[in-house]
Amino acid sequence: MPDIREHTALEIGQRLELRGQDSSSWIIVLVGDSSTGAKLEHFRDDIASVLQKPTRIFQIETKTFEELREELHNPGNDVAILVADDGLTAELWSSFDLMRGAIERAGPIVLWLSGNSIRHMTENAPNIRSYVGSSFFVVGPDGGFMTAEERAQRLTELIEHYGFGNEELIHRAQLKTLPPDPEIIEWLVLLGRGDLV
Questions:
Q1: Architecture of 9-146 per CATH?
Q2: Which of 23, 39, 148, 159 suits 105 as a labelling partner, its CA being 20 to 30 A distant?
Q3: How many CA atoms lie within 13 A of 125 on its CB side?
Protein backbone atom coordinates (compact mmCIF):
# COMPACT_ATOMS: atom_id res chain seq x y z
CA MET A 1 0.00 0.00 0.00
CA PRO A 2 1.34 3.50 -0.78
CA ASP A 3 2.51 5.85 1.94
CA ILE A 4 -0.54 7.79 3.12
CA ARG A 5 1.20 9.63 5.93
CA GLU A 6 -0.15 13.07 6.46
CA HIS A 7 2.07 16.04 7.20
CA THR A 8 1.80 18.60 9.94
CA ALA A 9 1.84 22.26 9.00
CA LEU A 10 5.23 22.39 10.71
CA GLU A 11 6.59 19.63 8.46
CA ILE A 12 5.31 21.43 5.37
CA GLY A 13 7.03 24.59 6.59
CA GLN A 14 10.27 22.66 7.11
CA ARG A 15 10.09 21.30 3.55
CA LEU A 16 9.68 24.83 2.23
CA GLU A 17 12.60 25.92 4.39
CA LEU A 18 14.83 23.22 2.88
CA ARG A 19 14.15 24.63 -0.59
CA GLY A 20 15.96 27.85 0.36
CA GLN A 21 15.16 31.50 0.98
CA ASP A 22 14.31 32.39 -2.61
CA SER A 23 12.96 29.09 -3.83
CA SER A 24 9.91 30.35 -5.75
CA SER A 25 8.16 27.18 -4.54
CA TRP A 26 4.56 26.44 -5.44
CA ILE A 27 2.77 23.78 -3.37
CA ILE A 28 -0.80 22.60 -2.83
CA VAL A 29 -2.39 21.88 0.53
CA LEU A 30 -5.51 19.74 0.23
CA VAL A 31 -8.31 20.62 2.64
CA GLY A 32 -11.81 19.23 3.10
CA ASP A 33 -13.20 22.56 1.97
CA SER A 34 -11.46 25.77 1.01
CA SER A 35 -13.09 27.92 3.68
CA THR A 36 -11.00 30.42 5.57
CA GLY A 37 -11.63 29.50 9.16
CA ALA A 38 -9.47 28.73 12.15
CA LYS A 39 -7.75 25.89 10.24
CA LEU A 40 -6.28 28.31 7.75
CA GLU A 41 -5.22 30.76 10.43
CA HIS A 42 -3.48 28.01 12.44
CA PHE A 43 -1.75 26.79 9.30
CA ARG A 44 -0.58 30.33 8.49
CA ASP A 45 0.75 30.80 12.03
CA ASP A 46 2.67 27.50 11.95
CA ILE A 47 4.22 28.25 8.54
CA ALA A 48 5.22 31.75 9.68
CA SER A 49 6.76 30.28 12.82
CA VAL A 50 8.87 27.70 10.98
CA LEU A 51 10.03 29.98 8.17
CA GLN A 52 10.33 33.09 10.36
CA LYS A 53 8.66 35.09 7.61
CA PRO A 54 5.45 37.05 7.38
CA THR A 55 2.73 34.85 5.90
CA ARG A 56 -0.24 36.43 4.16
CA ILE A 57 -3.56 34.98 3.00
CA PHE A 58 -5.18 35.98 -0.29
CA GLN A 59 -8.66 35.08 -1.54
CA ILE A 60 -8.10 34.68 -5.29
CA GLU A 61 -11.67 35.35 -6.36
CA THR A 62 -12.00 38.63 -4.44
CA LYS A 63 -9.11 40.36 -6.23
CA THR A 64 -8.52 41.54 -9.74
CA PHE A 65 -5.43 40.09 -11.33
CA GLU A 66 -3.69 43.48 -11.12
CA GLU A 67 -4.46 43.77 -7.39
CA LEU A 68 -3.23 40.24 -6.72
CA ARG A 69 -0.01 40.78 -8.67
CA GLU A 70 0.69 44.09 -6.92
CA GLU A 71 0.05 42.68 -3.45
CA LEU A 72 2.08 39.50 -4.08
CA HIS A 73 5.11 41.57 -5.08
CA ASN A 74 4.96 44.04 -2.20
CA PRO A 75 6.83 42.37 -0.62
CA GLY A 76 7.66 39.43 -2.86
CA ASN A 77 9.72 37.33 -0.46
CA ASP A 78 7.17 36.45 2.22
CA VAL A 79 4.88 33.40 2.16
CA ALA A 80 1.62 33.78 0.22
CA ILE A 81 -1.29 31.43 0.83
CA LEU A 82 -3.71 31.65 -2.09
CA VAL A 83 -7.20 30.38 -1.29
CA ALA A 84 -9.35 29.32 -4.24
CA ASP A 85 -12.96 28.59 -3.34
CA ASP A 86 -14.82 25.79 -5.10
CA GLY A 87 -16.76 28.42 -7.03
CA LEU A 88 -13.70 29.84 -8.82
CA THR A 89 -14.77 29.67 -12.47
CA ALA A 90 -12.94 27.95 -15.31
CA GLU A 91 -12.40 31.38 -16.87
CA LEU A 92 -10.73 32.74 -13.72
CA TRP A 93 -8.52 29.64 -13.44
CA SER A 94 -7.50 30.05 -17.10
CA SER A 95 -6.70 33.74 -16.57
CA PHE A 96 -4.73 32.91 -13.44
CA ASP A 97 -2.84 30.28 -15.44
CA LEU A 98 -1.98 32.71 -18.25
CA MET A 99 -0.71 35.29 -15.77
CA ARG A 100 1.31 32.89 -13.63
CA GLY A 101 4.66 34.35 -14.77
CA ALA A 102 3.62 37.81 -13.61
CA ILE A 103 2.92 36.54 -10.10
CA GLU A 104 6.03 34.40 -9.81
CA ARG A 105 8.05 35.62 -6.86
CA ALA A 106 10.97 34.74 -4.60
CA GLY A 107 8.73 33.75 -1.68
CA PRO A 108 6.74 30.51 -1.69
CA ILE A 109 3.14 30.27 -2.89
CA VAL A 110 0.85 27.83 -1.10
CA LEU A 111 -2.38 26.99 -2.93
CA TRP A 112 -5.06 26.15 -0.34
CA LEU A 113 -7.51 23.95 -2.27
CA SER A 114 -10.30 21.44 -1.82
CA GLY A 115 -10.47 18.34 -4.01
CA ASN A 116 -12.98 20.11 -6.25
CA SER A 117 -10.69 23.14 -6.59
CA ILE A 118 -7.77 20.87 -7.48
CA ARG A 119 -9.89 19.35 -10.26
CA HIS A 120 -10.72 22.82 -11.63
CA MET A 121 -7.05 23.82 -11.47
CA THR A 122 -5.96 20.63 -13.24
CA GLU A 123 -8.51 21.13 -16.03
CA ASN A 124 -8.09 24.89 -16.52
CA ALA A 125 -4.61 25.82 -15.29
CA PRO A 126 -2.14 23.25 -16.69
CA ASN A 127 0.85 25.56 -16.34
CA ILE A 128 0.18 26.15 -12.65
CA ARG A 129 -0.27 22.39 -12.29
CA SER A 130 3.21 21.93 -13.78
CA TYR A 131 4.67 24.53 -11.37
CA VAL A 132 3.32 22.49 -8.47
CA GLY A 133 4.63 19.16 -9.77
CA SER A 134 4.07 16.51 -7.10
CA SER A 135 4.11 18.97 -4.19
CA PHE A 136 0.69 18.03 -2.82
CA PHE A 137 0.23 17.82 0.94
CA VAL A 138 -2.57 16.77 3.26
CA VAL A 139 -2.26 18.37 6.67
CA GLY A 140 -2.42 15.79 9.42
CA PRO A 141 -3.65 15.56 13.00
CA ASP A 142 -1.10 17.88 14.57
CA GLY A 143 -2.15 20.43 11.97
CA GLY A 144 -5.72 19.91 13.11
CA PHE A 145 -7.28 18.94 9.79
CA MET A 146 -7.59 15.18 9.51
CA THR A 147 -6.91 12.46 12.04
CA ALA A 148 -5.65 9.01 11.01
CA GLU A 149 -9.13 7.63 11.75
CA GLU A 150 -10.80 10.31 9.62
CA ARG A 151 -8.40 9.56 6.79
CA ALA A 152 -9.03 5.80 7.04
CA GLN A 153 -12.78 6.43 7.11
CA ARG A 154 -12.59 8.68 4.06
CA LEU A 155 -10.52 6.11 2.14
CA THR A 156 -13.09 3.42 3.04
CA GLU A 157 -15.91 5.68 1.79
CA LEU A 158 -14.09 6.27 -1.51
CA ILE A 159 -13.40 2.55 -2.00
CA GLU A 160 -17.05 1.69 -1.32
CA HIS A 161 -18.32 4.47 -3.59
CA TYR A 162 -16.17 3.55 -6.59
CA GLY A 163 -16.15 -0.22 -6.06
CA PHE A 164 -12.38 -0.77 -6.36
CA GLY A 165 -9.35 -0.49 -4.07
CA ASN A 166 -6.31 1.71 -3.69
CA GLU A 167 -4.05 -0.42 -5.89
CA GLU A 168 -6.60 -0.44 -8.71
CA LEU A 169 -6.96 3.33 -8.39
CA ILE A 170 -3.21 3.82 -8.79
CA HIS A 171 -3.10 1.39 -11.73
CA ARG A 172 -5.94 3.21 -13.51
CA ALA A 173 -4.37 6.60 -12.76
CA GLN A 174 -1.11 5.44 -14.34
CA LEU A 175 -3.08 4.34 -17.42
CA LYS A 176 -4.96 7.66 -17.36
CA THR A 177 -8.34 5.94 -17.47
CA LEU A 178 -9.92 7.65 -14.46
CA PRO A 179 -12.56 10.38 -14.64
CA PRO A 180 -11.40 13.80 -13.35
CA ASP A 181 -13.81 13.64 -10.39
CA PRO A 182 -12.81 15.74 -7.39
CA GLU A 183 -13.18 12.62 -5.24
CA ILE A 184 -10.66 10.74 -7.42
CA ILE A 185 -8.18 13.60 -7.04
CA GLU A 186 -8.76 13.69 -3.30
CA TRP A 187 -8.26 9.91 -3.12
CA LEU A 188 -4.93 10.06 -4.97
CA VAL A 189 -3.70 12.89 -2.75
CA LEU A 190 -4.79 11.04 0.40
CA LEU A 191 -2.70 8.09 -0.81
CA GLY A 192 0.32 10.31 -1.28
CA ARG A 193 0.10 10.05 -5.09
CA GLY A 194 -0.51 13.65 -6.06
CA ASP A 195 1.98 13.03 -8.86
CA LEU A 196 -0.76 11.07 -10.66
CA VAL A 197 -3.29 13.90 -10.60
A1: 3-Layer(aba) Sandwich (3.40)
A2: 39
A3: 26
